[in-house]
Specification:
single chain; 264 residues; alpha+beta; nine-stranded mixed beta sheet
Length: 264
């Protein structure tokens, strides 16, 4: 890359990066830009709204929620906590009369769920070089991300704007039942993201649901059976049995569901 080839993505002004420099500020308009091969893109960051204590509390609430195994917040053992500004590629893609935002991690990570994290444009601020010591360096080239988009049928002309955004992240490593797991807390929004985690077992819930459904299907068939057996009074008798059976089965099903929820 020669200096003559580098222009600001905002104002088009000629930039003069030093050898090896990738983060710089346009001297004409003040935009923060990132140099990726021969491309110049906007460079933003998000300001953290959570400290380490608040991020840890957000993680505990998630662990105690409905997605994870019961009492994960008490039974898990946290082994490592780290903070960094993690880079993501932000693509603004034309979609009908408007635009939609697509995110891709700009560095290696096991938590690909960050593709779905909220990234409001109004919260983006110019990247400050003072953050560089805490920032993860991008290792996924923009060309690679654009190639992924082309592979799913996204035409280059539909990508209206590309930006590199450094997002404040707390990374937590923890152990549960002797197995290691990783969760990430977005320090800007408080959202917890994890690809693999100790999830609730679905089989007990499905068993209770199927048993309840089968019970009520059988009860619903009793009036019809009564009608077949005795066309005069059989249906009324069957309906009575059905109602009584339902009044007994409903609390039993509720109790079974509560018992499963208290232990899974």
């Amino acid at each position: 890359m020669t200096a003559a080839e580098v222009h600001c993505a905002q104002c088009g002004g000629l930039l003069h990066p030093d050898e090896g420099q990738v983060f710089l500020v346009c001297p004409y308009c003040g935009s923060a830009v990132y140099l990726d091969a021969s491309k110049v893109v906007f460079h933003w960051s998000l300001a953290p709204t959570l400290g380490e204590v608040e991020a840890g509390e957000a993680l505990s609430r998630w662990m105690a929620g409905n997605e994870t195994v019961k009492d994960l917040d008490r039974k898990a053992r946290r082994t490592e906590t780290s903070f960094a500004y993690f880079p993501v590629w932000l693509l603004k893609i034309k979609d009908g009369d408007g635009h939609r935002i697509h995110l891709e991690p700009a560095a290696a990570t096991s938590v690909t769920a960050m593709r779905e994290m909220p990234l409001p444009a109004g919260d983006l601020v110019r990247y400050d070089s003072a953050l560089e010591a805490q920032s993860v360096a991008p290792s996924v080239p923009l060309d690679t991300v654009l190639g992924w988009q082309a592979n799913v049928g996204q035409r280059p002309e539909n990508i209206a704007e590309t930006s590199l955004v450094h997002v404040p992240m707390y990374t937590y490593k923890y152990e549960y039942d002797g197995k290691p797991f990783t969760a990430v807390v977005d320090a800007a929004s408080g959202r917890v993201m994890a690809n693999l985690f100790p999830a609730k077992a679905e089989a007990p819930y499905r068993t209770v649901g199927l048993a309840t459904a089968a019970t009520f299907v059988c009860l619903a068939g009793i009036p019809l059976m009564g009608l077949i057996a005795d066309p005069q009074e059989g249906m009324a008798l069957g309906a009575t049995v059905c109602v009584i059976g339902g009044l007994i089965a409903a609390p039993a099903a509720f109790a079974a569901a509560a018992w499963v929820a208290s232990r899974v």
